[in-house]
Amino acid sequence: MADRGFGHSHSIPVNSGTNEVEGNFSLEEDEARQNGDGPNVVLGLDGGTTSTVCVCLPLMADPNDLPDPLPLLARAVSGCSNYNSVGENAAKETLEQVITEALTKSGSNWSAVRAVCLGVSGVNHPTDQEKILKWLRDIFPSHVKVYVQNDAVAALASGTMGKLHGCVLVAGTGSIAYGFSEDGKEARAAGGGPILGDWGSGYGIAAQALTAVIRANDGRGSQTMLTSRILKALGLSSPDELIGWTYEDRSWARIAALVPEVVSCAEAGDQIAHNILTEAVKELALSVKAVVERLRLCGEDSTGSFPVVMVGGVLETKRAWDIGNEVVIYIKKFFPNAQPIRPKVEPAVGAALLAFNFLMKESEVNKHS
Amino acid sequence: MADRGFGHSHSIPVNSGTNEVEGNFSLEEDEARQNGDGPNVVLGLDGGTTSTVCVCLPLMADPNDLPDPLPLLARAVSGCSNYNSVGENAAKETLEQVITEALTKSGSNWSAVRAVCLGVSGVNHPTDQEKILKWLRDIFPSHVKVYVQNDAVAALASGTMGKLHGCVLVAGTGSIAYGFSEDGKEARAAGGGPILGDWGSGYGIAAQALTAVIRANDGRGSQTMLTSRILKALGLSSPDELIGWTYEDRSWARIAALVPEVVSCAEAGDQIAHNILTEAVKELALSVKAVVERLRLCGEDSTGSFPVVMVGGVLETKRAWDIGNEVVIYIKKFFPNAQPIRPKVEPAVGAALLAFNFLMKESEVNKHS
C-alpha cells in the first residue's frame, strides 16, 4: 500500500527504459501481442490513500522461477486512488494517468498489456471490487485480464513473490491483517479505519498519544514526556491548541506521522508512551492471530509453519523500541513456527506478480478445458 | 449545546409574541434604550455542531430573584455555527440569521438589545474566543455588551440559573466537563472531540459498539447482540458493510445516534454492550472528578457540596440502563455531597442568563468606579 509509511518514499530499484526481455511465451492468447515494439507486459498497481504506484513487468516464463532481481521495466507514481477519499471520477483518472506514465516510461504501450492487477485500499466488500473492476474494464480492451484486490493482498504477494499463501500484517496509517490458506480460503481482521478501532495502526498509536497529552493536561491522566515532544513537533505552545489542530485537517496520515515521537518517548523511558506501543503490539498480533486461526494456517496444534509478511511504516521503524520485532515475538508466542518475512519489493510489484500468476493460472485452465 | 441530543428537539415553553415586561431598570446606561416599542432585551445563543438556538429575554430587575417560569420573549433555531465544521463565513451568517429571527419573533429589534452571550462549541482557546467576539462586535453596535463562552459554560448556567459555580457534565455527541469555583477560577476536562479520546461521549460509546461488531466478525472479539441490532438499525446486511458506511459520511452525530441500540443491548443482558456503557460512565465521572479536584469545589476533605449540572442525550436516556444515574453514583463515590442538577431550561437560556448577569456585574462595577 502506497500510504503505509510516514511520508517516506520507497527506494525500489527500477530498470527504467526499454529492457528487452525474451520471454518464453507459452500462452495460447499470444495473438494479443499486437505489435513487435517490446515484450508483452503485466501491470501492478498499488492504490493507497496518499499515492498510487504502477509498475510494469515483462511477461516471464515461470512464476515459480523468477529472476532476481526482477526485470522491472518502469515505475510511476501518482496521487490518491481511494474512491472513499477522493470520489470515483478522481480515483479513476488517477489510475489512467499513472498507467499511461508507466507504459510510456517502459517504452511499451497499451496493446502490450496482457494483465493488470490493482491492489487498492477501500476494497472491503464484493461490490467495491466490482465497481473498480468495471473502471479497469473501461480503460483496457476486452482481451486484457483485469484483477482487483484489497491492497493488503498485494502486500502479501510482495512478500511471497506472488504466491497467495500465509498472512500479511500491514501497519501504516491504517492497519489490517489478511490471509490465504493453500486451498484458497481467505480471511481478514481489522482494517476498518479509525472509527472502527484499528488501535495498532499509526493513526491509532498517535491518536492515543494525543489523548494522553490531553488527559495529562486536564488532570485525568499522569504527566508524560509526550506533551513536550508532540507540542514541539507540531509547533504548538499548549495542549489546549491540540484540539484546534486536530480539527484543522481531518487527514489520518497527518496524525499517524507522530508515531516516531511516541517511539522516542518510549525509548527515553516514558511509561505512558511505552504502554501505548505495547497495546498496539498486542492489537496487531491479535489481528494476525484471528486470521491464522480462522484459516488454520498453523495446523491443528498451532505448530505449523506459514509466512507472515510484515509491511508498513509502523513495522519498519528500525528503532531501539522496535514495534515490528515486538509483534513477531508476540505472534511466536501463539505460533512458534510462524515465518516472518520483510518484503524486498514493494506492494505494486506484488500486484504485478499477482497479475502474472492469475494470468498463468487462467491459461492453464484454458489449456485443459 | 444544541447538538447534545440524538436528534430530539427540545420542548422548551416559549412565550412568543410581545410580552410587555415592566422591568425595574436600575442600569445607568438606560439611555441606550433607544425606542419605546418594547423592553430592553438580552440574547442567549447556543451554537452547536448540528444547530444554533437563540432566545430573547427581557431585562429583569434582579438576577438573584428570577421569575418562574422565565418570561421568554422568543426562540429561534438555525443550522450549525461551529466554524470548525462549516467555516467562519457560514458560522457568522448563521448567527446573524438566528438573531434576526429571534428579534422579529419577539416583536423587538436590534436597538433593544443590551447584551448578548453566545455559548458555542469549538471555543477551546482564548484565540477562538477573540475571533467569535469580533464577529459579534461586527454585528452589534458598540454599546451592546457581547460575551462568548464555551457551550458547556452556557449549559452550566442553564442548571444554576446563570450563576457560574459548580461543574457541568455535557455528554451528547461529544462530551466535556467544565467548572467554576466561587472565586472565578475555571477548569475543563475532555471535550477534545473523537480523535482526542472522549470515550464517554455518544460518539465514543457508539464507535466502540461498532468496533465490537467488527471484532466479533473478524474473530478478535466475542459475539455480541450489537451485531444484529446495529446492522438492523442501519439497514445493512453484513458487518463488512459497516466499513463503507463509516466512510460515507464523516459526521459524528450520525455515529452517536446509535447509542440507544447500545443501551438496548445492555438492557437485554449483552455483556459487551454493558462493558462499553460501564467504561463510558467511568470516563464521564473521571472528567468531572478532574475538574472538581483542580478547582477544589469539594473542599479540602471531598465532603463539600457543589452543583453538578448534567446535560446531553447520553445522560438523559431515561432507560432501565440509565447512564446519567450511573454517572451520579460514580461521582458520589468521590464526592458524597455533590448535588446533581438536571436543568429545566435549555443552554441558550443559560447563555441569556449569563448575558444578564455579566451586564449587571459590569453595571455594578461602573457604579462604584
From TrEMBL, chains A, B:
It comes from the Eukaryota. Belongs to the eukaryotic-type N-acetylglucosamine kinase family. Residues 12-21 have a biased composition (Polar residues). It comes from Cannabis sativa (Hemp). Its EC number is 2.7.1.59. Residues 43-355 form the ATPase BadF/BadG/BcrA/BcrD type domain. This is N-acetyl-D-glucosamine kinase. PANTHER family: N-ACETYL-D-GLUCOSAMINE KINASE (PTHR43190:SF1). One of its GO terms (molecular function) is N-acetylglucosamine kinase activity. It holds the Pfam family BcrAD_BadFG. Residues 1-21 are annotated as: Disordered.
